Amino acid sequence: MRDLSPSLEDYLEAVYALSRAGGVTRAGLVGARLKVSKPSVNAAIKALAARGLLEHEHYGGISLSPRGLKAGAEIAGRHALLKDFFVSILAMPAPRAERDACRAEHALSAEALRRVGALAVFLKTPSRARLLAAARSAAGRRAAP
After folding, report:
1. For residues 41 and 47, what is the distance between their CA atoms, to the nearest angstrom?
2. Contact status, residue 55 vs residue 35, Cβ threshold 8 Å
């Protein structure tokens, strides 16, 4: 959803992830996941509800609308694609890949994301994967004292 700010995308992604199991989540869980205050969560929830992406009962549960479910899945997919690329192709440590994927998912165009995904598939083909593993191994041997 390119019409949302990166911050609102983060809130929508958090609601999406937290509501996957039961279809509903709570503001306190969203705040804990994003490490933000309850007033910040409430403001974001109101903004997302005004855009028709979720429904929130006063002091109640938060659930995604069909549009919100689609948008949340898209945002989560971008994040997962980038994190996987950073970890499996670039051999980045998972915590760093997580942080960088969160930043990059908001900045890259749909075309760039499609191309990153295509490159990941290409590099993960069995013959390419062996070449990539050999290159990483050689780089590790050169870096070791």
Report:
1. 10
2. no
- Return d(Cα 113, Cα 134) in angstroms, integer: 26
For residue range 11-36, what is the model confidence (pLDDT) as tens digits? Answer: 999 999 999 888 899 999 999 999 99
**35 and 90 in one domain?**
no
* Rounded Cα distance, 7 and 124, in Å: 32
In the three-class reduction of DSSP (H, G, I as helix; E, B as strand; rest coil), residue 63 is classed as: strand
What CATH number is given to the structural domain containing 124? 1.10.60
**Which of 71-105 are b and which e, b meaning 16 or more Cβ less than 10 Å from the residue's Cβ?**
bbebbbebbebbbbbbbebeebeeeebeebbbebb
Q: What is the pLDDT of residues 20-77, one digit of tens each?
A: 888 899 999 999 999 999 999 999 999 999 999 999 887 789 999 999 999 999 999 9
Shared domain for 86 and 132, answered yes or no, is yes
